[in-house]
Amino acid sequence: MKPLQAKPPDDDVLGSLGHPSAPDDTGDLGGDLPDWLDSLRKSDDMPPAASEEPSPDWLGGLRSQPEDMLDAEPASSAASGFADSGDEPEDWLRGILPVEATGESDAAGAADLGASPGEELDWLQRIGADSDKPADQTSENVPEWLSELEDASPDMEPASVPEWFTQEAQDRVAPGDARPEQLPEESDEIPDWLVGSAEAEHDWLAEEVDQQPAPSAAAQDEALPDWLTPLPEEESAPAAGRSAERVEAELPDWLSQEISEPLTPTAAQPAEEEELPDWLSGEGEPTLDWASQEVEEQAALAAAQPAEEEVELPDWLTSAEDEAHAWMAQESKEKVPPEAQPADEEAQLPDWLLGVEDETIDWLPQEAEELPSAAQPAEEAMLPDWLSGQEDEQLAWLSQAAEEKVPPSAMQPAEEEAELPDWLSSEKLPDWLAEEGAQGAVAAQGTAGAPGLDLTAGEGPADEDLDWLGELEAAFPEMPSGAQVASSWGATEAQEGLSEPAAAFDDALPGWFAQPEAESGGGESAAAKPLAGGEDLDIMPAELPSWLEAMRPVAAVGAAAGQDEEITKGDLVSAGPLAGLRGVLPAEPDVAQITKPPVYTVKLQVTDLQKSHADLLGQLLAMEGEPRPIPGKPVITTQRLLRLVIAALLILTILVPIVLDLSFVSAPPAPAEALPAAESLVAGVPQEGVVLVAIDYEPGLSGEMDAVAGPVLDQLMKRGIFLTLVSTRTTGPLQAERLLAQLTNLGAPQYAPGQQYLNLGYIPGGAMGLLGFAEAPRQVLPQAMSGENAWGNSDIPALLNVNSLADFALLIVATENPDTARFWIEQVQPKLNDKPLVMLISAQAEPMVRPYYEADPKQVQGLVSGLAAGASYAAQSGYRGAASDYWSAFSIGMWVAGLLIIVAGLVNALSAYLRRGKEGVEGERQT
Amino acid sequence: MTGFVDLIGMAVGFLLTICVFSYIFGDNFLFRIAIHVFIGVAAAYTVVMVGYNVIWAQLLSPLLSGLLSGQVVLVVPLLVPLLGGILLLAKMNSRLSIMGSPVMAFLVGVGAAAAVGGAVLGTLFPQVEASANMFDFRSITALKFLNGSIILVGTVTTLLYFTFWARAGGGGAAAQRPLALRAISWVGQVFIAITFGALFAGVYAASLTALIERTNFMVDFVIPLIFPGS
After folding, report:
1. Global pTM?
2. How far is CA A837 from the centre of its chain?
3. Contacts B129 to A, Cβ<8 Å
4. Among all residues of chain A, which has the CA nearest to that of B132?
């Protein structure tokens, strides 16, 4: 690692601000101007009235550089000494110079601004004398920081110009640098505080013009005002004779210490960091990158500056360079003169300059190594990494800038410093300014061998906050940003291929600085763009990034504004009490406005296939509604003929035994098992017992049921058993009455109602009624069919002791319906308490009821089913009734039926056989 | 007088019987007249029977008797069936039918409960018990065992006959029941055929008896008319 060395001589920001690279620069500085300043010059075609913005006056002077002045610069430069020297003053200084020269121009017309520096500073003295007026004037327009500065330094004249200003004046008044055509216009833009001293400037400017052709230290000393005389004495020593020791002696302690210690990246850096203020010591903070670069640039500038150029900027000027902080850094690098800098100059750097970030220190040795010029060892050492490591194009502009910025006479004579006023002395300057001046002076001293500076600077500008950057940006929007300047410079100087600082430089720049650089794009600098309109504070339309553009509420505001505009445009009430108002809601809603409804076609768009399907469906529906003719039937069909034959056969077979009273059929067969049981049960009814008889059959089957029930009831009636008749059918009670009457007619005893029997009538409710009757017979059937009380009636003694069904001696159910029989079995039989149940049923119900009789235990104790059982029962009991009469007919009919079934079966089998044979024959024929 | 009324009655019966017999030749006007007369007479008789034997005899007569006698205890229980009967009349009107729904629900519920209870306790359990008792070895006989076996086989095979699940045939063949099941079903089918034959025989016997009775009635009515004094 190489020891830390001061940057190669270069025009730093201070140099660009007010210190020309050489005191005797009389050439046109237009070529050396940074782009942003160049653009500033070109864009200063704004009207004079535009300069009356609330910006500081001195900046107004800067901004108010008329374009015509710049346009006239070549001519003036040609006539001035700057053209010869090839060095040009900074543009913003041009903006100041014409102000100064305005008075002169008024007096001398087109005379050159060849006033000596000493004469140029006279007006500053007068300004100091007339401090009241400028103070009042500037108090209105100057920034706050400037006002504070004035308040804090009451003894300092408001018009007191710093040294750099004086130096610049000296540069500007070089012989042949007069620009008479600009003076009248520039006079309008003179700050107020300068206007007051304009007349005073005329004199010294004229003198300076006269003295400029042969500038010398002695002449300058003579021109120096009184208040500047001490300063030249200190700084009049030639730069070459100024040794490092003397500089070191003049340096403050902290600086002396730095000088005494060999600066090495390893040893000097920690100590420097300790002395760094907080805002500089924050390594790694992006916001301080630019500061580190600036420090380096300041050091380089100090090395490049002649010893006479003591940079002592007041606070307000320091703040004025806010906008140019970034470009100052680049400018300092660009203005590094090719001359080698003494290695010991770096020792003169203040701590705050040396105490930069690591990256800043690191690039120094690398840069020194990478610089191509072997004749410039110091310069190489001062080149940072980003300078050496950048692209060729970056190096190009750097080399170009170095060639352009460095004047032939890089060393300013020490005599120029003698013109500094008293108030510019280090004692009166702010610490930071003194420090910066000291840095610049040290750098200049080391570079040109000029006498060292009286560095009375104290500590660095640690107290300053970085917010001034933002404030300055906001206060002077028309000023090109440092990034733009840097980009423009980068584009220009990249062609030189000397360095590659762009990337590293961008990294060191603040965010607000780097963004415009990116937007500047390529070779054309954003600073080259003219300022918007003639307004000082007109802000050029920024190119917002897409993401920021998307966040702008412009659309919503625009939409809202559009709506408001619509409201204001329309609905202007023309009549009524609200006439003249806009945006009034309509009294009639829109829905009430009758409009003709749109007409839609009802024609369906269907394909041919769909249409055919629809037609087919329509035909089917139409056919369903049309009556179809019923095919005629033959009068006599086989089915009907067969029906007639069977009916006739049955009727004839039945009529013959009935009509002829033939008894050719034997007696009924012996009764089955159920019949004797029924007969015994009926016969086992006690004489005083009461038999409950249910007549539950329909009149249609009364012929069979009467034949079945007659023999049983006849047996009971012959015994005089009291019968209680009930029925679950509405026709049952009448069937019972008719049966009893029929039995009486057939020889049974006459049964009188209430005496031998009691017809309780109809039991409603089906199964429920039966269940209720089984549970409580008295409540369900309290009265007899005759209306008399059935229960507890003394007239019916048989029922006096009957309270439930179990009190009946026998239950006889005569029904042709198997379901009715089942209901009696299911609902009533369990309530009989072992009392017998005899079922007198039709033949058709026997298959359903017999299982109850066949069950074990028996649910039906006796069963008489059908005419055959009734006839058998009648034969056993000696009853001659219908069963006996019907038996022969019934027997013949059963045989006929059997024969018909057999014959029909045979006919069906034969017909089937014949059909199958016919089909087989036809099949064989077909095959 | 009694003989004339009986003669009129027998004449009406004869004519109606002839009208019903006319159905041998198919549906005809006489048959329809006889059917309509029978239905009308039966309905009228039912109304009279129910009104007189049920509503009046079992509801209104006790209610009036209680009111007249001042026996509220007898009257209050009768109000429930009276109110239920009135609400049932609301079923005739579609708008008021919902008023009779509770009463109808009560009747259906009680009727279902009675029917189900009677079927389970009066038919199912006793018949299961009876079938099981046929194989009681304490009192078993050959005939009883045979009878019981036939009943058991007939019952099982008949139930299996109504098993209609089948196994899907491969290769697109029709699904068929297993062979064993088909054999059992065939046995059950035989028992079902026998049962239907028995039922048909019973129906035929009952119908033949009715025909004989009607034929005998006509003979008894016509012969005296044709052959008076016979």
Report:
1. 0.49
2. 90
3. 855-857
4. A856
Residues 824-883 of A with CB under 8 A from B: 825-827, 829-830, 842-847, 851-852, 854-857, 859, 866-868, 882
Sign of CA dihedral A79, A80, A86, A91: negative
Which residues 680-739 of A are in CB contact (within 8 Å) with B? 700-704, 706-707, 730-731, 733-734
pLDDT at B27: 87
Quote the minimal CA–CA distance from A677 to chain B in Å. Answer: 19
Contacts of B54 (CB under 8 A, 6+ apart): A762, A764
Interchain pair A762, B123: CB under 8 A: no
Are A878 and B149 in contact, with CB atoms under 8 Å apart?
A: no
3-state secondary structure A663-692: CCCCCCCCCCCHHHHHHHHHHCCCCCCEEE
CB contact under 8 A, A847 and B198: yes
The set of residues, in sequence order, having a beta carbon less than 8 Å from that of A194 and lying 6+ positions away, is A57, A58, A61, A99, A100, A123, A127, A134, A159
Sign of the C-alpha dihedral computed for residues B95, B96, B101 and B102 taken in this order = positive
| Helix-, strand-, coil-residue percentages of chain A, each rounded to 5 | 60, 5, 40
Q: How far apart are CA A116 and CA A100, in angstroms?
A: 13
Q: Whose CA is closest to A430, among A455, A457, A411?
A: A457
A287 pLDDT more than 70: no
Structure tokens at A860: 């039906």
What is the ipTM, given to two decimal places?
Answer: 0.89
Q: How far apart are CA A517 and CA A290, in angstroms?
A: 14
Is A659 part of the contact surface with chain B (CB cutoff 8 Å)?
A: yes
Residue A846 is given by DSSP the state H
Half-sphere exposure of A447 (CA within 13 A, CB side): 40
Instruction: In whole angstroms, give the CA distance from residue B18 to residue B38.
Output: 14
Cis ω for the linkage preceding A857 (within 30 of 0):
yes
Tell me the range of A90-94, A503-507, A897-901 where mean pLDDT is highest.
A897-901
> In this structure, are residues A236 and A418 in contact, taking their beta carbons and an 8 Å threshold?
yes
